[in-house]
Design brief:
Strand content: 15-25%
Number of domains: 2
CATH topology of the largest domain: TIM Barrel
CATH superfamily of the largest domain: Metal-dependent hydrolases
Helix content: 25-40%
CATH architecture of the largest domain: Alpha-Beta Barrel
Radius of gyration: 21 Å
Number of helices: 15
Number of strands: 17
Distance between the termini: 17 Å
Shape: globular
Structural class: alpha/beta
Length: 420
């Protein structure tokens, strides 16, 4: 649970990153209740009068980090499943085996993941919920986000039941501070007919969707030819149906379906072609790609098209995926990894990928994701004691300094502040 600080307080710090590409040196953020009252420097605007003044010193204040794709059910794993470079089609059976053999409950793992997320600066999540998930840990969490209820059903005879289950979940009201959505899992696990049903349901109920797409070459091969390792695995599991997808399909066919939903996350997007990238750019107001850099590296995928997506105006957010393919749930670690791995991406854009763009992807960019008066007081405080003093981005991205505190809606979700 979050802890209250004061109803009115002002934080001063060496750097304030506003999330829109501007960095204020010797800046401040004033908070009243759950909202930001003022952001600036002493030369621009004064802090809110009568607020508690807290000088943080060598600290960077960033908007609360947004982890747009998580599977918190795996949060108690000590390391990824399988070896680096493993094919997705060989990794999935390890995930299924882990779920079968799991000792901690899903709720226990989710609770651990929420704690780790808050401690690493995340204030907003895009979580995928599977079977065994009750929602109880989220109601007790200090952070919020969107829960996407996962739907799996490739066989024609599963369609009606899975759609009915989705209808029930779409009307679920057991969460406080969290939005709900639906997640048709992937092209190899959900029939095209069921995807169309779920898109129609999402449109009718005004729900967001999240779908794993263009994640691996084997997935693209399955769609294009109806053959390959994914078909072989599905046949071995008794899950293959020639009616599940149309041979000669493309990722673009799924993007066209998702584009009719109110909002859609394209999870991973590792193997998007130029037509698909252009389509996503045209639909950037309601569709976003969620890139998971360290998970992408774990599987040894070809270079992600993130720079091409950004160049044409497609919206991209960042996620960690899960501890089944990532060593941690830290978005700060994700940003630092991306800064090293893809130096061609401007550093101010890396901050936006993990803050404002993520909030926009989840449909709440008008309320959070940047430090602006009137928005929620969602912030992460990071030590800026390392790095080059003339480069604020170096102080955050080129260091291993930890998160000092996480603030969500003006309340401490993690850490402590001086004199509080």
């Amino acid at each position: 649970m979050s802890q209250s600080i004061s109803s009115r307080f002002t934080l001063r710090a060496r750097y304030v990153f506003d999330g829109r590409g501007r960095v204020l040196e010797d800046g401040f953020v004033s908070v009243e209740g759950a909202l930001i009252a003022a952001v600036g420097t002493g030369d621009e605007v004064s802090p809110v009068a009568d607020s508690d003044q807290i000088d943080l010193g060598d600290v960077a204040i960033l908007p609360g980090l947004v982890n747009a794709h998580t599977h918190l059910e795996f949060s108690m794993l000590s390391g990824p499943l399988g070896q680096p470079g493993i094919r997705l089609v060989d990794w999935i059976p390890l995930v299924i085996a882990h779920r079968t053999e799991r000792v901690p409950s899903v709720d226990e793992s989710v609770a651990v993941g929420l704690t780790e997320s808050a401690a690493s600066g995340t204030t907003l999540l895009g979580e995928i919920a599977t079977e065994g998930w009750s929602g109880a840990p989220l109601n007790q969490a200090a952070i919020g986000g969107t829960v996407f209820f996962e739907v799996i059903g490739l066989l024609p005879e599963q369609r009606a039941l899975r759609l009915e289950q989705a209808r029930q979940r779409a009307g679920w009201h057991g969460l406080q501070g969290w939005q709900t959505g639906l997640s048709p899992h992937a092209p190899y696990s959900v029939s095209q007919a069921l995807v169309a049903d779920l898109v129609e349901l999402a449109d009718r109920r005004r729900l967001p969707l999240a779908m794993h797409l263009a994640e691996s070459p084997e997935e693209v091969e399955l769609l294009r030819t109806g053959r390959g390792p994914f078909r072989e695995w599905l046949e071995s599991m008794g899950l293959w149906s020639p009616d599940a997808l149309a041979c000669g399909s493309r990722i673009l066919d799924y993007l066209r379906m998702l584009a009719t939903a109110p909002r859609a996350l394209v999870i991973h997007g590792n193997y998007l072609d130029e037509d698909e990238i252009a389509f996503l750019a045209r639909h950037c107001r309601t569709m976003s790609v969620v890139y998971c850099p360290r998970t992408h590296a774990f599987f040894g995928h070809a270079p992600h098209p993130v720079e091409r997506l950004l160049a044409v105006g497609a919206r991209v957010a960042l996620g960690t995926d899960s501890r089944a393919s990532n060593p941690s749930l830290s978005m700060l670690d994700e940003m630092r990894f991306l800064a090293r791995a893809r130096p061609g991406i401007p550093r101010e854009q890396i901050v936006q990928l993990a803050t404002l763009f993520g909030a926009e992807a989840l449909g709440v960019g008008d309320r959070t994701g940047s430090l602006e008066a009137g928005k929620q007081a969602d912030m992460v405080l990071v030590s800026a004691a390392q790095g080059q003093r003339y480069d604020p981005y170096s102080a955050v991205l080129d260091s291993d300094e930890p998160v000092i505190a996480t603030i969500q809606s003006g309340r401490l979700a993690f850490g402590e502040l001086p004199n509080c």
